[in-house]
Amino acid sequence: MSQSQILRAYSIKEVAKKINIPTGTIRQWEKDLDGLLIIPRSKQGARFFTDNEIALLNKVKELRSQNISKTMIRSLLEKYMQQNSEDSCEPAEVDETYASYSSFESYEPLDMEVPPQEMTPYINEIQTSHPEDFQLSIDLFKQELLNEIKSEILQSRQDIVDEFRNEIMNSSLHTVKELSKSIQRANDKRKADVLEISDKISQASKQTSASFTAVSDGLLKDSKTHYERMMRQIQESAKANEKNNKIVLQKVTQKVKDTQEELRYVAQNFDAQQDYLIDSINNLKESKEEIAKREEIFQSMLASYREVAAAKNKKKKWWQVWSGKNQ
After folding, report:
1. Cα–Cα distance measured from residue 109 to residue 122, given in angstroms and rounded to the nearest whole number
2. 94, 128, 197, 283: which sits with the fewest CB atoms below 10 Å from its CB?
């Protein structure tokens, strides 16, 4: 097996970028075409792709772009895979590629210099024929793996920050809108109540003014009898006005109480939303601290790997000097 075949595998993000399809769409296709589109996984459960899976994904993409149904796509893929299986001459090499990639993914950062048992036959073969190329390939693979891990950590951190930011922004916007609506409703209701009260007071004032005008005219024109009758009318009118004023006052008092209750309810809702925002901010801070700890652990692992790699290089140079002297 050649060196390029051992390392010829792609992550789901690389495949998504390669065929210009979101990772979520690829996962959905895997579910829809269960049994046909089989994506191999590493020992840690991570998906990896070879040219065969990429070719199938491109075929599915082409069919989906033509608005072909899932049932028809499944039928066409079965025929397509049957033709490929008949034309394929090296299925064993593909399986060996999967096993090789899985073995490489199972390395721990501090044990990268020790090859796994699954890779021993291929490593011995390449070490014997091209030891320098093999070492260069291993170093390149390690560097790519570290870069991918770092990229995944950074992407995860960015996703978490973006998610919390969007949640806080949406929650704040929702809170402001709800408060604005509540305040607007309270203001509209209060304005309507004030207008109603003003109309009643105006009507009562008009009635009182008309009554006093009638009394004044009666005093000038009529006799004592008329005067007494007018006095009775004044008293009745005063009682009626007093009763109306009491009713109006009771309504005003009730409206004020209702408005106070609404304002208290709005204030309680605002306090609850404020507490929720504070909790969200605290959760975001804790997430940032957790991400910082993970970054620190990753940097420590990277430093340990560099120290091991440096020790390995020193060991190799010493062996070469000793070997040269024996010759």
Report:
1. 21
2. 128
| CATH architecture, domain defined by 3-106 | Orthogonal Bundle (1.10)
- For the record, the structure tokens of 224 come out as 């004592």
Smallest CA-to-CA distance from 50 within 3, 103, 14 is with: 14
- Residue 53 pLDDT greater than 70, yes or no: yes
Q: How many Cα atoms are found within 13 Å in the side-chain-facing hemisphere of 323? A: 6
Residue 90 backbone phi and psi in degrees, to 5: -135, 60
Bridge partners, residue 47, by sequence: 41
- Token pair listed for 85: 């299986």
CA distance 80 to 136: 38
Q: What percent of the chain has pLDDT above 90?
A: 11
Residue ranges covered by each domain of the chain = 3-106, 159-294
Identify the CA nearest to 175 among candidates 262, 272, 273. 273
Q: What is the spatial distance between Cα 76 and Cα 311, in angstroms, rounded to a whole number? A: 55
Residue 4 has a pLDDT of: 41
pLDDT for the residue numbered 95: 43
